[in-house]
Amino acid sequence: MNKNFFKYLSFVALLVIGLASCKVTKTYQSPDVQTDGLFRDTNTADTTTIASLPWKEVFTDTILQQLIAQGISQNLDLQIAYTRIRQAQAYYEQSRAAFLPNLNANAGVTKSRLSDAQGFGMRTDVTQYQLGISTAWEADIWGRLSSSRRANLASLLQTEAGARAIQTGIVSGIANLYYTLLALDQQLAITEQTVRNWDTTVNTMRALKVAARVTEAAVVQSEAQRYAAEVTIPDLKQNIREAENALSILLGVPPAAINRGRIEDQATVAVLQTGVPAQLLANRPDVQQAELAYRSAFELTNVARTAFYPSLTISGSAGLASLSLSNIFDPSAIGASIGAGLTQPIFNRRLNKTNLLVAQQQQQAALFDFKNTLLVAGQEVSDAISLHATALDKMNVRTLQLTALERSVEYTQELLRNGFGNYIEVIAARQSLLNAELGRTNDRLQQLQATVSLYRALGGGWR
Fold first, then answer.
1. pLDDT for the residue numbered 118
2. Do 251 and 175 meet the contact criterion of CB atoms below 8 Å apart?
3. Burial classification of residue 164, based on how many CB atoms lie within 10 Å of its CB (0-12 exposed, 13-18 middle, 19 or more buried)
4. 3-state secondary structure of 281
5. pLDDT above 80: residue 8
6. Counting beta carbons within 10 angstroms of the beta carbon of residue 2, is it exposed (0 to 12), middle (13 to 18) or buried (19 or more)?
């Protein structure tokens, strides 16, 4: 009997080896994508990129660093992403365990009432006691289990890349809102100082009216301009409050006031190095996430392809069975069996064909999504580079404009005091100066936020 048993096992082993030699699944290869020209008007072979810098080296304001660290540790979206990683880890561990045989223990008692014919007129009441184990193992002949494991691994890595993408968004979001608050603070200070300056101008106009150098119209118009500046203060304070509330949400805390520095003290990276576009594949989490989604879809297509081929299952059982509980451990109660079976789908109402077609189309859609994500990444880098250059150009011109306007205000006021000027020129010059000072703050904010956008677009912020 033992000899026959080993012959049986040898036959099964040879069958498994023969079937496994037939390759059904395909080997994954990274998709061929074109990265040249992704950064508009930027052509460099230098692979140095600010994306490789830790965020503490990009954002040197110690208060901002504390806020970013708090956001990374407490942000609820990031905590949710971590739970997705743990879920994907569980599925991956399950797919690894699929290569092992299952093992079940069973115990039972069955009481039967037989007819006279079934019991041959001898025994019509039968009680059977059973105790045993059973096992089954599916041979991964066509690579279904291997492909499923690789698909789950890709899904796990995808959730990890997704968490990194969320972190880059949190870092950039906190930095942008922080810089927005600093800009609003400065705009509020400029506006409040302008109101005080208008008070001086109004008093000057009143004195000139007494001296009969201007009319009441000049006084009234100067007062109107003073109120026009003052009426913007409540909106600025409301914008500050809303920015603080939004920043609090990113920090994972209830809305509250935010401690902060000054926009004049902010330092930026001296040289904004972009590296080469191909580095987006390794640095940018959402690009990695899109490629891993394609990889998972590729492996699931492999799984769907194996459904057309027979599956081999080896099963066995061993146990004790007796009609008397006292004899359950008697050697004569021992029984065992082993078997192997092939299951070949013949007709299942087109289910396998439909599953394969759907899997192939999902794989194709994932490839298109990956390519589109890479294009969008290139667009965001190009926009950030252009925005930063635009901000610098505006800041250079704005400096000249402010110098001219400051002199204009000074000259028109002097002329008016000496009886040669026009009060309308004074009002226009001071209003233009206010707009330019507010514009200078916006230019500086644009420069800071363009740096943040470029850092995030290149894939920085998760290191």
1. 61
2. no
3. buried
4. helix
5. no
6. exposed
